[in-house]
Amino acid sequence: MAVSQRKKIQINQEEERLKNDRTVFVGNLPITCNKKKLKSFFKEYGPIESVRFRSVIPAEGTMSKKLAAIKRKIHPDQKNINAYVVFKDERAATKALNRNGAQIADGFRVRVDLASETSSRDKRSVFVGNLPYKVEDSAVEDHFLDCGNIVAVRIVRDQLTGVGRGFGYVLFEKLS
């Protein structure tokens, strides 16, 4: 058992590990995406226990990220958000990886990965620097299409403003 610093509650680490095995990370979702749409997107793989949206930049500086996500008060410059989808069954989470690279909306190809995954992606990933601060994932992906099949693009963004920090990573399917 471990004690969380934030809330003085006990966390069963084995329970958390098992939950992570049933959880997928979903990146590059449009800000208009809601729980109902996300559940529908993954429903063919099995029942979903919960959906948590992350990487939300609040429209107002005084609002917490959690409240902004709940009330959908998102900064007008933010184009995408991320989510964690927890399935009731580990096999469903593994099957949901088939949605990686699928288009959920116009210009939004999602990145789906197991939350517990700690693979050696660095060998297939390249660092990209000197990017414009307002660059979109899709623009970087389009630029690197000739280099091979792309699994994911990740632009590193400021946590408070959501503005790009000028660099990111492109993850390729395999080494060339």
Q: How does this model look, in words?
A:
Pfam families: RRM_1. One of its GO terms (molecular function) is rRNA binding. The chain has 176 residues and is of the alpha+beta class. It is globular. The model has no long low-confidence stretch (mean pLDDT 87).
Count of DSSP-assigned helices: 5
The end-to-end distance, rounded to whole angstroms, is 44 Å
Domain count: 2
CATH fold-level label of the largest domain: Alpha-Beta Plaits
CATH class of the largest domain: Alpha Beta
Question: How do you describe this structure in short?
Answer:
The protein has helices at residues 13-21, 35-42, 65-71, 90-96, 137-144, and strands at 2-3, 10-11, 23-30, 48-54, 80-87, 103-105, 108-109, 111-114, 125-128, 150-157, 164-172.
